[in-house]
Structures are given as structure tokens and as C-alpha cells.
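Q: Hi! First time asking for a complex rather than a single chain. Here are the components, and I think there are two in total. Is that enough to go on?
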Amino acid sequence: MTTIAVVVSISLVIALTLTIGVFGLRVSRTTSDFFVASRRVGPFLNASAIGGEYLSAASFLGVAGLVLVRGVDMLWYPIGWTAGYLLLLVLVAAPLRRSGAYTLPDFAEFRVESQTARQVASWLVCLIGALYLVPQFQGAGLTLSALTGAPTWVGAFLVASVVLINVAGGGMRSITLVQAFQYWLKLCALLVPVIALWLSWRGDGAPTSHVHAVDWVEPLQGPRATYLTYSLILATFLGTMGLPHVVVRFYTNPDGRTARRTTVVVLALLSVFYLLPTAYGVLGRIYASDLVASGRTDSVVLELPHRMLGGASGTLLTALLAGGAFAAFLSTASGLAVSISGVLSQDVLSHRLHPVTAFRIGGVIATAGTLALTLGTQGLPVAHAVELAFAVAASTFCPLLLLGIWWRGLTARGAVAGMLVGGVLSGSAVLAVMVGAQPEGWAGALLAQPALLTVPLAFLLMIGVSVADPAGPPLHVGRAMVRLHLPEALEVDRGTYHPMAGRSADPRSI
Amino acid sequence: MPMPRWRLFRPRDLGSQADRAAFRTLHTASLMTSALRTGLNVRSAERSVRHLANLLGCPAVSLTDTSHPLAWHGRGSEHAAQVGPLAEKCVADGKTSVHDHREFPCAGPTPTPPTAQPGCTLRQAIVAPLTVEDSIVGTLMAFTPHASAALVRATDEAARWVSGQLELAELDAARTTRMEAEVRALRAQISPHFVYNALTTIASFVRTDPDRARQLILEFADFTRYSFQRAGSYTTLEDELRSIERYLVLEQARFGDRLGVVLRIAPEVLGVTIPVLSLQPLVENGVRHGLAGKDGPGSITILAEDNDYEAVITVEDDGVGEDPERVRRALAGDESMDSIGLGNVDERLRSAFGDEYGLVVETAPGAGTKVTVRVPKFAAGVYS
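A: Yes, that's all I need. Here is the structure of the assembled complex.
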């Protein structure tokens, strides 16, 4: 019974995704409402879309699983994933929008005027995107296996195929309305069951067994907990601004001011959402603590309705959760796959290919490569796997963005050195953990949470190499700074430019 | 016969002595091209004079404008201050000439120094004019211990080559100015027919539907303001579309049900930067061709779609179509074609975003016309 309901619910989500992806939202606008056609996307809609793309398997399933096992320390995951937008809001959102950059490689090219920096940034987008995709596929496998007993590769394969069809068919390309809908779908899919579960818990006499264990409620327990926690905080706070699929969403904002407003709304939406996984984690501690021993903690969200309510209502809520979870995998995975394919087709694959062909080839490489990586890795907790992608983003794009926006001394060589070293160090740590390396002692802690070491290192390298760089800051740094920091409404000469002259005159752009 | 093994280890065959000399010369010449193509100025002269000295194999070379030195490479740079008169002489008679050291005496300790200090090897100067479109813009000077006939000839040829590059630079500059002038012309040149037709259409509404007439006049005012006054060469897709909407409102008032319009714009691409008035001419062509030579109603469809890192904009009409060969000529810039500014739009898109972003026109007689414009969401240096 449950299996059928779950399969129906998941099929529905997949069918809906494919239909929208293949046919698009073909809303024609004819003469009567001419001027509606030029209406921009408002902050609320755009923020919902960012939420829809951002909230992944890690948020939907992973956080509850981690809270179930390790208690309060794990609350830093949802806090960090929300607070990242606070830093984005204060330091990055408006200048990034004003720069006119669509992707992070665009920003690198804009700010340090170097094709090498652009190439490095492109490879990093692929790396971060792949690392972020792995847990999505993994989560899909886990969901399907927990609910229907299918082997784990089936779910991963299913999501990968849907994403591939979508990307190859040209769908799911940042249709704001669809992504915005995804946020509300995910929110409802978690909210409705949690209300039912809460009522059931109240009806049960509000038991609190297993909750008062010292190592669960006391923070900073366990070896090297201080280092691990602060490293986690750094990675999540600073990593958000370097996520390729989030950054491209800011382009839809008309100007810097709306970019800020959008970010404020995102903060509110995420704050509401992240209350829910925590509640599932606590309820899981009370009703499903045996999952900890069996190691299947990531499926706690899916198993709770059945354990607490049972019967038809349990089945229906499980189906709702499964549908919501698949919506989460599909939206995030599609966004990531599109970002990677775009970068691959633009900067890596040959320009002799037709752009559409290149985009499709990029999609195939991105999805197939990541799927292979997923099947080759060990079962890392989903939330931790996603957080590792944040660590790489924090060690590479965060210094590029922060120094690029707020320090005029950043040079091309500095940016490349910082991104390369930060990316190689954090990336290899993450890959080592993913394939199952678990050394003892400090080495293990450094591998598990590399950010506290690699982020400052990347910053220092970028600053050091820039200061020592004989070539100095890029030619047009003054103009770039004016563009980044002056509000659009100000009537100021932002510098004239002729593309033909600019391309041949600057030797560093070659 | 199989090749003996030891041959594999020999250096690659680079041709005869003469071949290699030719390669070297061509390579040296290519090193100067990018600098000289920016025109004759201090910066380009400084960057190319070293290669010229290499090419001519003489101890010192200088580039000047018509009366002042621009750059000097090699020994005896104190002579750089004295090249002015030599250049003026060359400009006056317009020929390559050889000058003796008397005309550029070394500075010396005594009030009347000997013409050459013992250490100075620059005994003779060969001065060749640099001409652009039949007027002399500067000179190339080679200083040497002895001006052999071969060196005079070589200097003369080098000067001709530099002149050629400078002419190309002039051409580049002229092309840029022409494009800018064309944009200005496009702005000023709202078709007189359109103005006349719009005004008569509005007049016909003044009595029957005064509110609509007022609305149309405001649309017309805003349309002309955008077309005439917008500063800068780039704008956002949003602003361009807004102006196009005004244009279409006016045309629809005139044609009524005969002109159907479908607009489907993805809001995600409204912020894309495009050259100003790059879509307007396409829409105007579409309306004209969609309705011309047809009795029934015509329609025009404008789509703007999001394609990840680029926006794809298509303007399609279901009119009589066009011979593809004529479109090709219009895109190549043939002035006699009556497609408004198609070649100009194509050229501006290419110069802003690169050659892969030119216009794509699909048409055939009787099959309508579809023009596709792809625009990257980000292009370095292109801002509205």
C-alpha cells in the first residue's frame, strides 16, 4: 500500500517536472496586455525561486538525520545555510548584480580581466557542481530504497535520467515561476506532515525519551568538536555566495537594490523552512532512535509518519514527503546540471560545436560523470556531503568575491593562485572523504572539515600574490569598482568602452 | 626505401637559409602588427620601433610624426631631439632620402663641436616617409655607419609596409566612426512615413475616441524620446522592448485587425544588455514585410527566451518572405537593399559580442521571415 502511494506520488512529481521542462511555460501575451510583457520578476517571486533551487536533499532529509544522531551541534548546518545569505546580502548581492556577471567565471573575467582566471573559475564551478550533485543522487537512491526496498542505484539513476532529459530537451532553464513553486511545494511537503506528527505527539502525552542524553543536548561534545564546529560554521557562512546555481539567480533582479531585497526575503523563507527539519530530528530522537544504530538516519523524515501514525494517514503523509523529497532532488539537481552544462559548453568544450549541441554534451558529461562518482562513493551522510561542497566554494569563490568587490588591489595572478590552491586543497580533502578515507586524529578532522584551514589560506594567498604581483591590478580596475559600488540610479559616467579597441589593447586578456 | 632511423633525431627541416630569413622577417613584421593597427602614436611607435631596428639590422631606428620624434631605439638616443628638422625636410619633398651626419651633429664639450664625436657610429640617416591615403603622416628613420643602397631600399620597403598597417588602422577607425554615425542616423531616421502615418492615425481618433488619441500621442512622444535621446551605445532588452511595444501600439492603431502581434518574453532575460536600436529595425522590417503585398491579415511574433548563459530573441512575420540572396546582400551591407539597417544591426552585434553572435535570417519567397538574435547575458566591457 505504502509502496504504491509512494510510487504514484514520485511519478507525479517526475511527470510534472518533465512536462514543464519539455513544453516550457508557453504563456503567450498578445496585444491586450502589451505592457505586462516587460514586467520584471519581483523580489518575492525571485526569492521563492532561489529557495526552490537551493533547498536540496540535504535540507529536506539530511539535517533531520544529523540532528537525530548528534544533537544540538548539528543545528549549525541549518543556521549556517541560512546565515550564508546574510553575508551575501551585506557584502555581495548588490555589487554582484551591478557587475552584470551571470556566472562566477563571468565575475572573474569582469574583475581581474584575465582569461586564465575565467578558466580556473569554470573548472571550479564544475567541481563544486559535481560535489553538490552527488548527495542529490545519493538522497534519491536512499529515499526510494527506504520506501520501496529498491536498490539504492535505482533512485540515483532515475533522478539522473530525468535531469538529463530536461537539460538535453532544453527545459528547466531557470523558469522562475517553476522554481518558486518548488519552494512552496517543499515547504508544504514538510509542514503538513509535521503538524500531524506534532498533534500525534501531543496526543501521546508529549514523551521526551532519549532527548535528555548529555552528548545530544550539550554542545561541543566529542574529540576536536571545537575545531569541527567552527570549521563547519566558516564553510556554511562563506560557501553560500560561491554556489554556481544560486549566483545565476541574482541576474534576474533588475538592479542591486532589488538584489538586496530578494536576499532579505530569501533569509525569511529559509528561516521558516529550516525550523521543520529540526522538528523532524527531535521527533525522530523520540520515536525512531533505533535508526541511529542501523545507520539509516537520513531516512528518518520518511519513516516517521508510518511509525507514529500508521494506517492510511501515515501512508498519505509518507507519499507527500516522498514527492516533496523528489521535488527537492530534481529542482536542485536540474539547476546544478544546467549551471555545469552552461559553463562546460561556454568555456571548456570547443567553440566549433553548435551552442545547443555543446550544451547537451555538457549536460551528458555533467550528469553521467556525477552519477559515476555517486556510485563510487561511500554512504556519507547527505547533509555532510553537501556541506563539503560548501567548503570548496568557501575556499575558492568566497575570497574571489569578497576581495574582488572590496579590495581594489586584487590582481589576476592573485585570484588564480588563491582559487587554485584553495580549490585543490579543499577539493582533494572532500574527494578523499567521499571515497571513504577516515584517518585518525587531527588528520581525520582536517579532512572532514577542511574549511578552517583552506579558507584563510586562500585569502592569504590571494592577498599575498596580489601584493607581490609585478603586473599590478587590472587595467580597468577603477572603472570596475565604480560599476560595482555606485547605485544604478546615480547618473554618473561609468566610463565609455569600445569592445574592439578593448580586446586588442589589453595584452593580459589574451 | 625506408627512412633511416637516425633521421628521427635530426632537427626538423626548416627550409633553406633564404626560407628561414623570410620566416624571421615575417615573424618580426607580425609582432608589430597589433601595435601599428592602433594608429601612429607614441605608444604604438615605442612598441614597434624595436622590431623595426631588428628588421633593418641597423644600430638605431626612430619613428616620428611630421615634425617630432615619437620613439627611438638603439644607440645615440641624444640624437632623438634632432630628428625634427629631418622629418620636416622629408615631409616637404615626400621622398626617401639619405642625410649626412652634419645635419644631426653630436652634442660636444666645445662650443663648436666637430660634427661627430669619436664614439658615435651614426654617420648617416635614411629617412623614409610614412603615407596614409597620399598624405605624409610621419617618417621612419634608420641611422647607420654607412647607408648602402640595399639598406636604403630596405628602409623604403619597411616604411611602405608600416604605411600599409597605418592605413588599415585608419580603416578600423573609419569603420567604428561609420557604425556610430549609422546608429545616430538610425535614431534620427524614424521613417518619415511612420511619423506621417502615426499622426494621421491619431488624428482619426481625436473626435471618435479622444482618450485613445491622447494615449497614442503619449506613446508617440515616448517612442520618439527613446529613439532620439538615449545616450550611450547599449541598453537593456527591457528598454528596447518597451520602445518596440510603443511602436507596435501605434502601428496597430493604424492597421487594426490586419496586424496581429504576439509577444512572449521570458522575464529572466529582460536585464540582458544589447546595442541600442538593434531590435527595433528588425521589428519594423517584420511589420512592413508581414503586411506588404498581402491582402489578408499579417502577424508578427516576438519571442525572447532564456537559454542559460544567453538570451535568444526571435522576430518572425508571416509575410511574403524574401529571396535569401537579397538578404545575404543586405547583411553584407549593400546600401541598395531596402531592409532598414539589417547590415548595421548585424555588424554592431558582431562587434559587441564576437562573430558567433551575428544575425541569423531564415526566409524564402512566400514563407515569411524569421530573424534570430542570440545575446550573451555577460560580455566583458558591454554595459548599458
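A: Residues 2-22+41-480 of chain A form a domain with the Sodium/glucose cotransporter fold (CATH 1.20.1730.10). Let me know if you'd like any chain examined more closely.
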